[in-house]
TrEMBL record:
<feature type="signal peptide">
    <location>
        <begin position="1"/>
        <end position="27"/>
    </location>
</feature>
<keyword id="KW-1133">Transmembrane helix</keyword>
<feature type="transmembrane region" description="Helical">
    <location>
        <begin position="136"/>
        <end position="155"/>
    </location>
</feature>
<dbReference type="GO" id="GO:0016020">
    <property type="term" value="C:membrane"/>
</dbReference>
<dbReference type="Pfam" id="PF25807">
    <property type="entry name" value="Clarin-2"/>
</dbReference>
<keyword id="KW-0812">Transmembrane</keyword>
<dbReference type="InterPro" id="IPR026748">
    <property type="entry name" value="Clarin"/>
</dbReference>
<dbReference type="GO" id="GO:0007605">
    <property type="term" value="P:sensory perception of sound"/>
</dbReference>
<keyword id="KW-0732">Signal</keyword>
<dbReference type="GO" id="GO:0050957">
    <property type="term" value="P:equilibrioception"/>
</dbReference>
<feature type="transmembrane region" description="Helical">
    <location>
        <begin position="189"/>
        <end position="209"/>
    </location>
</feature>
<keyword id="KW-0472">Membrane</keyword>
<protein>
    <submittedName>
        <fullName>CLRN1 protein</fullName>
    </submittedName>
</protein>
<feature type="transmembrane region" description="Helical">
    <location>
        <begin position="97"/>
        <end position="124"/>
    </location>
</feature>
<comment type="similarity">
    <text>Belongs to the clarin family.</text>
</comment>
Length: 231
C-alpha cells in the first residue's frame, strides 16, 4: 500500500482514538448512564391505584457513576432529590464493582490517548520496530477495546443483577417501598459501546494498512529452513 494511504489510515485511526478518549471522559462525568421510572408500591397499594391513578405514584430516576437524581412520587406530587454515590450510597451499592467500572473507564481514557499518540506518530514519523510499530498499535487497540467491554459487562451486571436502581430509590426510605417500573441504559453507556467498536475497527485498519498480526509467521520460513537442512 502506498505511504500516503497508510498515513491517511493512521491519521483516521488516531483521530478516532482521540475522539473515543474525549467521549469516554465526557461520559464519566455525566448522569446519563441509566434512566428509568420507579413505582411507589406502598402508596399505590394503600389507595388501590390503577390505570390513570397509577401515574401519580410513578417517579423518575437517572444517574451516572458519581451522582444522579430521583423524583419521589407517592401520590402527593413529585419531589426531586439529588444524591451522590460517594459517600452517600457507598453502603448500599456493590462498591467493588462500581469502583472497578470507574477504574476501567480511567484505563480506557489513558490507553485511548496513548493509542492516538502512537497512531499519529506512525503516520507522521518513522515507527520503531517494537511498541511504536504494528505490535504496539494492536496492543493499545486491544487493551482499549477490552476495557470498554469490561465496563459494559460490570455496569450492566451492577444495574440488572444487583438491582442498583431499586437500591437507590429505596435509600433512606423508611415508610414507602419503591420498585423499578422501567429501566434503560442512556447515552453515556452506549458511548462506551461505540468506543469499544471503534477500537476494534482500528485493529482492522492496521490490518488493512498491510501489517500482519503480531504473532503471525510467514509460510515460506518453515519451507526455507527445511531446504537448508537438506543441504
Amino acid at each position: 500500500m502506498p505511504a500516503q494511504q497508510k498515513k491517511l489510515i493512521f491519521c483516521t485511526a488516531g483521530l478516532l482514538s482521540l475522539a473515543c478518549a474525549l467521549g469516554t471522559a465526557a461520559a464519566v462525568g455525566t448522569q446519563l448512564w441509566v434512566r428509568g421510572t420507579t413505582l411507589c408500591s406502598t402508596g399505590a397499594l394503600l389507595v388501590n391505584a390503577s390505570g390513570a391513578e397509577l401515574h401519580k405514584f410513578i417517579g423518575d430516576i437517572q444517574y451516572g457513576l458519581f451522582s444522579g437524581q430521583r423524583v419521589r412520587q407517592c401520590g402527593l406530587g413529585g419531589r426531586p432529590l439529588q444524591f451522590s454515590f460517594f459517600p452517600d450510597l457507598l453502603r448500599i451499592i456493590p462498591a467493588s464493582i462500581h469502583v472497578s467500572v470507574i477504574l476501567f473507564c480511567t484505563v480506557l481514557i489513558v490507553f485511548a490517548l496513548v493509542g492516538a499518540g502512537f497512531f499519529l506518530y506512525n503516520a507522521f514519523g518513522s515507527p520503531y520496530e517494537t511498541l511504536h510499530g504494528p505490535t504496539g498499535l494492536y496492543l493499545w487497540s486491544f487493551i482499549s477495546c477490552s476495557c470498554g467491554c469490561l465496563i459494559m459487562i460490570l455496569f450492566s451486571s451492577e444495574v440488572k443483577i444487583h438491582h442498583l436502581s431499586e437500591k437507590i430509590a429505596n435509600f433512606k426510605e423508611g415508610t414507602f417501598t419503591f420498585k423499578t417500573h422501567s429501566e434503560q441504559f442512556a447515552n453515556s453507556f452506549w458511548t462506551i459501546l461505540v468506543c469499544s467498536l471503534v477500537h476494534f475497527l482500528n485493529a482492522l485498519l492496521i490490518r488493512f494498512a498491510g501489517f500482519e498480526f503480531p504473532f503471525s509467521k510467514s509460510k515460506d520460513s518453515g519451507t526455507t529452513g527445511a531446504v537448508d537442512l537438506m543441504y
